Amino acid sequence: MPTENWNLEINLDHFEIKKEGFSPDNTMFQLSAIDSKNQINLSIFIEKTDLKGDKEECREFYWNKAKKSPLAKENLKKYEMKNLAIIEHDTKEYNGQIVDFHSLNTYLAKNGYWIDIHISKAGFTKKDEKTFKKLTESIALN
After folding, report:
1. Cα(76)–Cα(39) distance, rounded to whole angstroms?
2. pTM value > 0.85
3. What domain of life is recorded for the organism (predicted)?
4. Is the separation of the CB atoms in 24 and 48 below 8 Å?
5. CATH no., domain 8-141
6. Residue 1: is its pLDDT beyond 80?
C-alpha cells in the first residue's frame, strides 16, 4: 500500500496480470492474474479495516462471506502456515457438471489492513498440489 512501510510478496512467475489497481483513496488494492499454462487463477484483495484482529480474524471475516456462495464446499481444511491463515476446499460439481474445482485462500493482517489471496483451478488434480504449495510458500509480508 502506498502509505505503508511493508510489501506483500508472492512469486507470480508464469502469471499474466489481467487487472490491478488501487481505490481512489488508496485504502484498497485488487489484482487478478492467470497462469495460462497451468490454468490457475489468482486474485489478491487488500483493504483497510477498522476491525481489530490478526490473520485468523481476517480469515473468519472473509470466510463468513464466502461460505454463503452457492458453490458446494467439500474437503474443507483450515490451518495456519508461517504468517498465513488458510482455508482450502473443493467443489466437485456445479450445475450438474463435474468441475473438480479447488480453491485455496490465504489470509494475512498487517497494520490495519486485511489481505485475502485466492488461488483456484478447475480441473484440479494431485499434480497441481505442488504448484499450489509453491505459490503459498512464496507469500510474505516484508
Report:
1. 22
2. yes
3. Bacteria
4. no
5. 3.40.1000.10
6. no
